[in-house]
Description:
Rossmann fold, 2 domains
Amino acid sequence: MTRVPESSSKVDITLFGATSFVARHVLTYLMQTSLTIAPLQITLAGRNQNKLDALCEEFTTKMMHLSVIHESTSCGHCVFDTLVADAQDKTALQQMAARTKVVIACAGPFEQYGSHVVAACAAQGTDYVDITGEVSWAGRMRLLHGPTAQKSGARILSLCGFDSVPSDLAVFLAVEKLRLAAPSAHIQEAYTWHHVLGTANGGTLMTAAQMPLDWKYCWSQPVPFLLDDPLVLTHPKIRSDPSYQSTKNRLAKAEWKNQLPMFHTIFRLGASAPFFMAPINSKVVHASAVAMNYGSEFVYKERFLPTGYKMTTALRMLAIIPVIMIQIGTLLAMLVLWMPYLGTYLVQRLAPPGTGMTEEQCRMGFAKVYAEVSTAADPVTNVQDRANVMLEFQGDPGNWVTAQCVAESALALLLDKEKLPPKSEDGFGTPAQLLGHVLLYRLQHSSVRPVQISNHVRRINHSEWRMWP
């Protein structure tokens, strides 16, 4: 693909799929954040000029109102313009990528609307973030466009929403804290437990219903895959590693074991359910583990606490009751959602794309992610080191948290490029790998919704009760 000549004045951010439900939350967050940073030039891109014009007028008015309230001059405003670019118009997308510094993609399903956007950004050397949870698609984009991004210098980051920034960053921080406390320790496993309040919007449900699943490929493996290869998001060269097949099988077994209810001594034998996003988030965390060498035996498991940390600890083994109810409900919902035609029909009737929670409902939501990373127990003393990290987000996970994570990811690429970790070989990577502490800092010091981050490292006997710090 020919590279379009660079414009002398690129816009800061282009929001592709700007009229989508989540994109409006992203715009609101960027607008509020601009009150404390330099002005932002934002292009609203999509396929319908009338809708784009209406959105541009709406948010220009909101920005003027905010600027007056906060008496902002040099800071405190975004400048909006519009650009018509259809997801199938390769020429328009190339021109869109050439005129901007960072693209935020919010138009899903990404299998249908995202491929040419990634191709354009890779060709034009434009940094890219999105909110997809489609790991198979993201892995295929790396295979197809990694060499192009490597030449152009683009950074391409998928899965920058609630799936999978909280999980990825929580484990990343816990691994780092554990390594600082015990540099020679052999890291063995990581858990995250999620306690959330919120619902999926129509676009997310439609993406889930239409997500193509290659069942024949997944079930033909020595150990069947959940959604896809556990290492689908890693650099393609990992597939030539002699340990690739054994690692893939080991992680696939762990993903299946993670689908069962579990009891945890950290919650005094309180029970947890498998988190419904675990098959997605685990692939991101394992890609980070390979890229940043968490350990050759590292394995990640992701759980859901229906009643929260304190109540799960208080209920102890009785917590299995809500866990079983949640697990049955989730299984039935996924079976209905993936039924041919029925899933998409029900979503279109009950929660069509473009619909979702109100602002007040989003405000009532929250997401708490508890992470624990542990070393192998000493064979003589039975002692092991453990690092705990907790991230607490404000607002509905699928809307406010997703908007915050992807917006801060884009701002990290735009404003903090000199502070970022080294770029990966092909420009593709995970949030922890390519943004790391820069993104953690931005989330923690957000002027809109600061994320509470706490951590603790301790050395304990492997078999003793261990309460959350």
